[in-house]
Request: fold
Amino acid sequence: MRTLCIDVGATEVKTLVVDGAGRAVSPRVRLDTPRPATPSTLLATLAAGSAAAGDFDRVSVGFPGVVVGGVVHTAPNLDGDWAGFPLATELRHTLHRPVRIANDAGVQGLGVIEGIGTEIVLTFGTGMGFALFLDGAYVPNIELAHHPFGKGDKTYEERVSEPARRKIGMRRWRRRVQQVIDQITPIFNPRRIYVGGGNARLLDPTSFPEHVRIVDNVAGLLGGVRLWEPPERQPSIADA
Reply:
């Protein structure tokens, strides 16, 4: 059983075909996220990415927003009217394969977690992603990135996003990322925090506490296989 794993980002759309053992069986394909990134333009990009990926039997998508039962509720870093858009159903009609979709940080977490205790995934790129896992089960769609953080009324995402990094410089941005980790650790008391996303490569792994690990961004693709685990493990994920 081959899974086409798709990671939708605000900057890039990445695809990879993975076999049942979690091994990549195709080259990773990168396409620019369309601008504007509306439902119709993104569907066209996903179709192009799938055509370049090779043979596959099913599709998993990590999407940058709230997704419930394959229906998008929010897409803060994309364009157009995404609220209520049945992305899983539309993509199934486009690709003629069964589809499962979840928040991108959640899918990335499925590729790296150990399944023991409380584990958190933070992703830093255009924005910020957050995912919470309890004994290996994903707690979906906790949008911590859009909660206020620090002085004023700015959110976590506004303070550690890529636009913020470009504005304040690398040193201050790294300090803010550390502040995010320091803030959430006594709230969730996680056994592990995994840091990923496109900007994780800009961080110094030696600057973090022992329970924090920087992970390869390819996990956002490899985790897609685990979306097809039994429904009791992924109760919020529905087939389309």
Observations:
- The chain has two domains: 3-107+219-228, 114-214.
